Amino acid sequence: MSTAPVSRQTFDEVMVPNYAPAAFIPVSGKGSRLWDQSGKEYIDFACGIAVTSLGHLHPELTAVLHEQVDRLWHLSNTFTNEPALRLARRLTETTFAERVFFSNSGAEANEAALKLARRYAHDHFGGDKTKIVSCKQAFHGRTLFTVSVGGQPKYTEGFAPLPGDLTHIEFNNLTEAELAIDDNTCAVIVEPVQGEGGVTPATQAYLEKLRALCDQHNALLIFDEVQIGVGRSGQLFSYQGYGVTPDILTSAKALGNGMPIGAMLTTKKVAASFVVGTHGSTYGGNPLACAVADKVIELISQPELLEGVKARHQLLVEGLKRINDKYHAFTEVRGQGLLLGAQLAPSLKGKAKDFVNAAARHGLVVLVAGTDVVRFAPSLIIPEADLAEGLKRFEAVTAELVEKAAQPA
C-alpha cells in the first residue's frame, strides 16, 4: 500500500475529473473553522454545502458515533436496527410524516420519492397518470432520473435519452403551474428554497397554489428539503414555516452532519404503495448514520437552537448589507435562515467563482449558486465571533474584486 504523501496534484493523477476541487486540502476542523495541510486556518461559511450544520467535531455527535462504532456497523435490510427505528420515530414525532424510508443521499431520497409517486398513482388511478411537474433551475440530484427532473439542461447534456413524461415550469409562476398540473400529473416536486438554482425562496402564494392544484388533480406534492431542511430555514423543516404540508418530504445533507444519510418522509396511505420488494437500499438505515442523525434531530429541533438560527440570519444579513452599502457589489441578498445568496451586481457578472477563490486566499470558505450568486451556509450554531470574523474576511474579498472590476481591461 502506498504511503507517499498526497497533494492537490494527486487528485489530477488518480481521480475521475468530474470535480475541480480547491487548491488547498482541509485536513481538520473544529466548530466553524478548518485547517489545511499547511496549517492555514479558514472560517467555514459553507459547511460542506449545508451539511455540517452543527459544525465540525460536535462533541455530542462524536460521542454517539464512538458509542455506535463499538456496537454495530451494518446490517442488511433483511433486518432492522435500533438506531434506524429511533430516528424514524423521532422524525414522525416532529413532522407531518407517519412513515420513513432511509437512503444514503438526497438524490436517492428524491429517487425514492419520485418512484413512490408513480407507484401510488398506478395503484390508485391506473397506468396513465405518470406526469411529473418540476421547476426550471431546480436541483434534485445526480441520478439520471433526478437530474432529468431538475430543470437545468447543463446537467443533462450528453446523457440522452432521458426519462420521459417530465414537465418543467418557471419557479414561482402561478399561471404556468395552473397550465401544467392536470389529471395526468402524478406528482409535483419543488424546493421551498431553490439552492443550486440561485438561493431563491418560494413565495407563500406559490406553495399554496401547488398544494391546491395537487389536491384538485389527485397528485402528490413533494418538497425537496435536502438543502433547506433540518433547521437551516429557522424551522426544523421549511414547510413548517410556510404552513403548507407536502405528501412526501425528502431530507439529507445536514441530517447526518457529515455521515451519509438521506430520508424520505411520507404518510401511511402513500407509503402503502411501497410493498415488499418495490424499492430498497443496501446501506439505507445504516446504524452508524442513523445513530448520529437521531442526535442531530434531537439537538436541532430544540426551540432555542432554531431561535439562534433566526438571530444569526439577522446578523449575517446585516453584515452583508454593511458590506454592500460600501462596495455596491450585490443587487440582492435573499434566502431563508442560514442559507443566503448574494446576487452579484452587473459589474461583477459571472464572477461568483472568483469570490470563492479570493475567499480561500483570505481564509474563508464560501459557495456559489450559479455564476452570479455567492452562497453562504454557515453552521447553525456558528459563534458570533466567528460570524463577525468571516464577514470581515468577506469584506476584504469584496473590496479586492470590486477594485479589480473597476480597472481598465
TrEMBL record:
Pfam hit, one: Aminotran_3
Pathway: Amino-acid biosynthesis; L-arginine biosynthesis; N(2)-acetyl-L-ornithine from L-glutamate: step 4/4
InterPro entries: Ac/SucOrn_transaminase_bac (IPR017652), AcOrn/SuccOrn_fam (IPR004636), Aminotrans_3 (IPR005814), Aminotrans_3_PPA_site (IPR049704), Class-III_PLP-dep_AT (IPR050103), PyrdxlP-dep_Trfase (IPR015424), PyrdxlP-dep_Trfase_major (IPR015421), PyrdxlP-dep_Trfase_small (IPR015422)
EC number: 2.6.1.11
Modification type N6-(pyridoxal phosphate)lysine: residues: 253
Binding site for pyridoxal 5'-phosphate: 106-107, 139, 224-227, 282
Alphabetized UniProt keyword annotations: Amino-acid biosynthesis, Aminotransferase, Arginine biosynthesis, Cytoplasm, Pyridoxal phosphate, Transferase
Top-level enzyme category: transferase
Residues that coordinate or bind N(2)-acetyl-L-ornithine: 142, 281
Subunit structure: Homodimer.
Protein name: Acetylornithine aminotransferase
Organism name: Crenobacter oryzisoli
